[in-house]
What does this fold into?
Amino acid sequence: VVKELLEELHRHAVSKVIVLNTGVSTQAPLERLTAASPNTYLANVYQGPAVQHVSRKILRQTYGGHADERETSIMLAIQPHAVMPDRAVSWDCPIAPGRLRRHDESDPSYSPSGVTGDPTLASTAKGRMLLDAMINDVADFLRRIRT
It folds into this structure.
């Protein structure tokens, strides 16, 4: 879908396109896609220097990925009523890349809840700090490509 959108934008003579990636699993495919698309720039919000710095400073989980301390903190800051902290469970251990498996304990991508990380460590304050860092990184990114 993103490829088709980029092709249409370029067909209509859009001079620059910025893809703002707010996912983790979408990073690699979007990097390949934007590298092959002229005048297309990719901003991965979880990879910016400010986000990386804040993450190292405030996150306590050992591993993360999906519905973890970072993502749950961000959701608490954005839409707290959508988070159910009483249902949070930790799965703070490494898993293999790929689709999560919930029913086969021998699978290297096993996570019984679909969580990879520890959402029980999440807080609204951490989410606000991460969002501020993301905004700073995106603003810096836009300034760099503007020139």
